[in-house]
Amino acid sequence: MSKILKANPIVESSSEELKKKAESLLSRGVTPRLDVILVGSNPASMTYVRNKKKRAEGLGAICNIHHLDEQISTEEFLAKVNSIQADPAVHGCFVQLPLPKQLDQINTHQLIRADKDVDGFHPLNACSAFSGEELNQHLIACTPSGIIDMLDFYDYDLTGKKVVVIGRSMIVGRPVAMLCLARNATVTICHSRTKDLREETKQADIIISAIGKANFLDKSFLNNQKNQVVIDVGINLDENGKLVGDLKAEDMQEYAGAYSPVPGGVGPMTINSLMKNLFKAAEKLNELGN
Ligand code: GUN
């Protein structure tokens, strides 16, 4: 039987720390505030935003959701985003993705100023992740830093390990590869043009899958002699409309040493990182007197 890397114990321990931080900020007259910009009514985005708000409020922060019309023009959208992030009471801000088609031309990575960019998408923040600086000091992309927190919590030392990342997005694949590199892993990034994915994954000590295909990664990708750790970043609906990851869970039970479940794995870790970023941003802005 393999070990299941649940987010719950990590989220609980982070919550204790973050609540203490909230009290400390409150004693200095500061209530951490997160403003979320949601355009239209994509059902998945609405669920994500609701969950983020619930978690932020549970920690003693304020969370305002700005729900904008699906048809909003680029000019109106940019004006709204800029007025929200200019408010000195706002410590953290993000635009829930995806955006509707008419806003396609906007560079979402540079939309939110770096010091309030709790998504960690801004080039200045991405650069911190890419240069291997200390995670705790910077606003690092949430899913990648959540994965590292998970590996740390369950005591996986990445030094000298072979990590195979599947997916090369700017939000997950590339930054998580760089964070693993900063932990002295040997990292391979695979993608849709990789010639023989199985050949790569079978050699890995740790596989991080951000493919986005339900139950794609089955036992044929694993090497059951290696006690592999498999991290599932996928959030997919299967043919019955059930939420599943990229991994075929029953195969993982038999062939992997450990794996993260969906739901209850990387998803909650991502929200956890968002909260850590919010409190970091609030602390920093407060120290600077902003
Ligand atoms: N949509 C899906 N994942 C994310 C994320 O991490 N941040 C934002 N802003 N939107 C998303």
Describe, in plain words, how this protein is organized in 3D.
With 290 residues, the chain is an alpha/beta fold. The protein is built from nine helices and eleven strands. The strands form three sheets. A six-stranded parallel beta sheet has the order 1-11-8-7-5-6. Strands 3-2-4 form a three-stranded parallel beta sheet, sandwiched between helices. Helix 2 links the parallel strand 2 and strand 3. It is globular. The model has no long low-confidence stretch (mean pLDDT 96). Bound molecules: guanine. The site of guanine (GUN) has 7 residues, from strand 4.
Q: Low-confidence parts lasting 5 or more residues at pLDDT below 50? A: none
| Proportion of strand residues | 15-25%
Largest sheet: 6 strands, parallel
Strand order, largest beta sheet: 1-11-8-7-5-6
Helix fraction, binned, reads 25-40%
Which structural category fits the helices and strands?
alpha/beta
Q: What's the number of helices?
A: 9
Taken from the alpha-carbon principal axes, the silhouette is globular
